[in-house]
Amino acid sequence: FPQRVGGSICGMGFGFLLTLASVSLLWWNEGRAVQTARSLQEGLWLCVDVPSSVVEASNAGELVHVTDRLATKAPVRDAEFGYEFAAVKAKRAVAMYQWVEHRRTERHRQGNGHVEEEVFTYSTEWRHGVVNSGHFDNPYGHENPNSMLLRDATQTAPAVTLGAFRLSAGLVAAVSDWHEVAVTEQMAAALPTTLRARFRLFNGALYTGDPGHPRVGDVRVSFSVAGRTEAAGDEPAFVASVVAKQQGDGQLGPYQTRAGDVLELLSRGERSAEEMFASQIAANRYLTWGLRGAGWLLLWFGLSLITQILYTVVDWIPIVNVLVGFGVSVLNFTLSVSIALTTIALGWIRFRPLVGGTLLLAALVPFILLRARGKPQPPAGAPPTGPPPFAGHDQYAASAPPMAGKR
What we know:
The chain is of the alpha+beta class. It has helices at 2-46, 169-173, 185-189, 193-196, 273-314, 320-349, 353-374, 393-399, and strands at residues 48-49, 63-72, 76-78, 83-85, 87-110, 113-127, 153-156, 160-162, 165-167, 179-181, 200-202, 205-207, 219-228, 239-246, 251-253, 255-256, 262-263, 265-268. Strands 5, 6, 7, 10, 11, 12 and 13 form a seven-stranded antiparallel sheet that branches. Strands 2-8-9-15-14 form a five-stranded mixed barrel. Strands 3-4 form a two-stranded antiparallel ribbon. The longest helix is centred in the N-terminal third of the chain and has 45 residues, at 2-46. The chain is flat, with a radius of gyration of 35 Å. The model is unreliable at 390-407 (pLDDT under 50).
């Protein structure tokens, strides 16, 4: 019992930190959401559609919208394997067959309390990066190699163009439509001599050892590309729509808005500027609500850690522990909702006072209801409460002579 109380006290400190972090997250998110929304509206208002075939000097410094097929001056190359790909990016993924530890916690009832026990199991899986078996609970018989034969690698074409325009590094980084490339017999035969002696082809990938019956330490290598510059089978070439700043040298790069955000958008396919901004506005809305939900959950969890000691003290008392647990849970839920709404409202008051004020009123509703329910109500039929009447009022009224009326 003392250990559980001590753990609850430590949890209180962590709960306070979580509560502070959640309030900070909610406050920051509201400012970010409003700034992003204003930046997107500003960009939609200023964006100009321009042809991709020519760089017009009159548009230098402007926010422009361009659509065309991506191109590179030379194929992207994996020098170690000697493979070339008609794409903007090429990625080599290396996985090793290794032991992996799985941990789960089982809770058993013991007397009037509960005991938690950690259970460890082990399995062999293909994993990227080395799994350090020295950190296993039971490393005996589950040893992994300390290093890998090869490492993951990503290559990017040095110059990527969109019609007559060049793309900035930020726009190139936004090209992320990764598709696996199956290694063919010709590609396997073209491997350097040192690698050809180690690897064998199986299901479009390269393996060391027996692919059908892998052993710990075997390696698998696969390839994928993003931003195809030429059609390959059912995969068409990458057509991109870009909204960015046209610089004087014909490069498309980041555009700084007055609202505070930087605009540098790239979408796959032929999309109008209106469609691209609509997608960004929707994404901003989803992100805002997602962070609000995450902030509220962190707040609820933090408050639960702070009040956990109340349940720990009465956990050994039947019925009472259920009632206290239920009451504390309701209290934590109410407080978390109110604090979250208050934080969101205060954040919005700075930018949109009407909406912020409405949210602030909504945040106070739970406290108003709790205060109303906390007031004692008089029983039915009870006389109204108030100051007692004047003691001689009835006797004076009975003995007073009738007032003479006007003639």
